[in-house]
Queuine tRNA-ribosyltransferase
Amino acid sequence: MTVSFSIIQEDNRTMARAGVLHTLRGDVETPVFMPVGTQATVKTMTPREVEELGARLILSNTYHLYLRPGADLIREAGGLHRFMGWNGPILTDSGGFQVFSLASLCRIEDNGVWFRSHIDGSEHFFSPEKAVAVQEALGSDIAMAFDQCAPYPCSYEEAREATERTSRWALRCREASRREDQALFGIIQGGVHRDLREKSVKDLLALDFPGYGIGGLSVGEPKEVMYEVLDYTVPLLPPHKPRYLMGVGSPDCLLEGVARGVDMFDCVLPTRIARNGTVFTRDGKLVVRNAAYARDFRPLDPECGCYACRHFTRAYIRHLLKANEVLGIRLTTLHNLHFILELMRNIRRAILEGSFLEFKEAFLARWNKN
Ligand SMILES: [Zn+2]
């Protein structure tokens, strides 16, 4: 088995569990947050810095790398790990989400999707077989099946079609998968409809994937709706396989996802808001770019032990951001990744100690106060 999963401790009062994801490139403790390296780089950070922050598993992006620099070039470079200088495990998404959200769509047919590149408008075709072939060329440790993510809101009929197509495509991905050193995870769709989620789970469990992504959430629906979908979807998934909630990364959603039995998360949010001058603190988000912090000589988060908080003030980092100095966004990125990765470590420790619910409530009480 390329990827296997062991549960170390289950929480008595919630669905939370602490586990270990075993990969050929090392073990990953769960629940885990995967920093996103869209273009084969976690923006502004070197792989060594990402590793020193405690990240073990990162995500990279099939759609982006297929368009630029191209999967063949990365294969020629010796695969994605060697190309980007990251020796730990990598998960690649299938490109489905970007094809449906970023590219201008030409045509969806049962065989695949015609789309235009968001970079130069050139026309491309992605099918389940193509998505698998590109991910095999990249050589990621975990590949994702090509899925159709329906937008929110959309009609029931549209959600049903996307769900059924995702199931047909999942089978084709599994049949196309060749690499024995790469695990392929299926993706559950179904929008916000319970019967469609149930159908999607049933179809995908029949294909016996080593792990399952929960897709089609965090696409604009209210958080309560997302939690409700998780409440009825996660219990249908096999307990001994990892569950990955795709595209979720705000601290409150991570806690609520873990409480509902999710093991893996990824999101561009921590790094994206960092580049816009927003940082996480234990008391909620802080827009350090704002004038209010011009003479604030405290760290970004006084309780944070990251390099940025140990050495620099809000006033200095704000100055760097205002002056468009690249160190500014490096420091905010470093802090935000540290914050999220430390949160995941604390969540895991609390699960192991039997105090997850108290930890979650205490964290959210402060987080939501402002
Ligand atoms: Zn910090």
Observations:
- The radius of gyration is 20 Å.
- Residues 268-369 form one domain.
- Residues 300-301, 304, 306, 308-309, 335, 338 surround zinc ion (CB under 6 Å).
